[in-house]
Amino acid sequence: MEARTLCKRLRGFTHFPYVNRGKMSLEDVVNTAAELGCDHVMLVSDFKRRPGRLEILDLDLNATLSLFISVARLEKFKWLKKKRITVVGRSEVARRLYEAFGQNAMWVRGDGESLKKEGRVVFVDAQNTVLEFFDEGVQMILLKIRGAKLF
CB-side exposure of 92: number of CA atoms within 13 Å? Predict the structure, then answer.
């Protein structure tokens, strides 16, 4: 799995703008995000030619969350119907994801197994080892969290 494929799937799930960074500096990425009306940037970095890190930065280039990941499941889909994203989880990781999703999201503190079947759901388990993306009960993306840094 390449990082670009994961980014495109995340774009299809979140409806966030997607920009291929290429050789752009972080400042250029942040400026582009600001022009597009975003207040956070989500970066996916490669490790040994596979997605290895998902990082969320605010527009002042302050990292708020860094997840060391591996992709366990990545369903092929293009674009999901626009719906509000529900972030489910008790952890600080869940809260940071909710903040990054902004006005397009709501946060449910808890385990919320039953919520996985309702709309678009991003689920973080209590141990911060799994990050799951569901649409109407169907798991679209499954990321294993190998480590998390909160800033």
Answer: 8
Q: How far apart are CA 25 and CA 23, in angstroms?
A: 6
CB 99 within 8 A of CB 106: no
- Predicted TM-score (pTM) of this structure: 0.91
Which class would CATH give 3-150?
Answer: alpha beta
Cα distances from 102 to residues 24, 29, 78, 80, 138, in angstroms, run: 24, 18, 22, 18, 23
> In this structure, how many other beta carbons lie within 10 angstroms of the beta carbon of residue 9?
20
What tens-digit pLDDT sequence spans the chain (151 residues)? Answer: 588 999 999 999 988 899 988 899 999 999 999 999 999 999 999 988 899 999 999 999 999 999 999 999 999 887 777 788 999 999 999 999 999 998 889 999 987 777 777 889 999 999 999 999 999 889 999 999 999 999 8
d(CA 3, CA 61): 21
**Residue 115: other Cβ atoms inside 10 A:** 16
Three-class DSSP category at 31:
helix
